[in-house]
Amino acid sequence: MVAREGLVVSGQASRNGAGIVIPVDGPAGSGKSTMAKIIAERLGWDYLESGALYRAVGLKVLESGGDPDNPDEAARQAGALRFECRKTPDGWRNFLDGEDVTDKLREERVSDSSSKVSAVPAVREALLAFQRGYGRERGALLDGRDIGTVVFPEARLKFFMDADIEIRISRRFNELREKKIDFDQEKMAANLRARDKRDRERTTAPLRPADDAIPIDTSNKTIDQILEYMIGEICREYGQLIDLR
Ligand code: DC
């Protein structure tokens, strides 16, 4: 087996995809988490919503009464993070210090705080090793902003999903409504636009497609259409190494 920076590039990888990581990047509401989760399920692989890591840091700062604009405070919380993304009978859930915080992490105050703390280089550095631990025991899909550019730049197959901003805003409205999380529509839309701008314009690991990422515009596509396309690309790249369910 020939490995390049930890990833399988040829040879007899085990059938569970060990050595393969597929980055799925994109802005909020692009559909990256939805798709990465479904595909991880189909392959029996691991899944990490890397945004949840930044959200967890943002939440820790808020709950400790700190200021998300204070880089030292953000770096301190990131360095001490005890986080786990685990599959449960209720789907993939995020745990912070052993507590299931999946729903809490979606609150608007946490979205805003996470976007601020994620611009701090020391925070990003502290979370790198955790993310790079994925893909060793079985294949993994990681969604985020910089998985294909910074965390796993050597991945052979990567996706970058995007969609029209108005469509992304309405998807986020629906998601929060479904989860029965209270929100102010105007404030939420303004926050998402501000977050987009901050994520794209920050100096460290800005949101951008890797040069070799496959772009997918999800604006007017159904989940099934996107799934068929992504599975087709995965089979083309890794067909002999994977088992689809
Ligand atoms: O994907 P999300 O909306 O849950 O991400 C929350 C914030 O975390 C987002 O504003 C940017 C940041 N983030 C990041 O900087 N890098 C990642 N790989 C994932 C998320």
How would you briefly describe this protein structure?
The chain is α/β, with parallel strands linked by helices. Helices cover 44% and strands 18% of the residues.
Sequence of secondary-structure elements: EEEHEHHEEEHHEHEHHEH
Strand order within the widest beta sheet: 4-8-3-9-10
Supply Rg. Answer: 17 Å
Mean pLDDT across all amino acids: 91
The unique ligands bound to this protein are: 2'-deoxycytidine-5'-monophosphate
Total strands: 10
Give the CATH H-level superfamily.
P-loop containing nucleotide triphosphate hydrolases
Which fold does the CATH topology refer to?
Rossmann fold
Helix content: 40-55%
Counting structural domains, the number is: 1
What would you call the shape?
A: globular
Structural class: alpha/beta
Number of DSSP helices?
9
Oligomer: single chain
CATH domain class name: Alpha Beta
How much β-strand is present in the residues? Answer: 15-25%
Q: Please report the distance between the alpha carbons of the first and last residues.
A: 25 Å
Uncertain regions spanning at least 5 consecutive residues: 1-5
* Shape-level CATH architecture: 3-Layer(aba) Sandwich
Sheet bearing the most strands, described? Answer: 5 strands, parallel
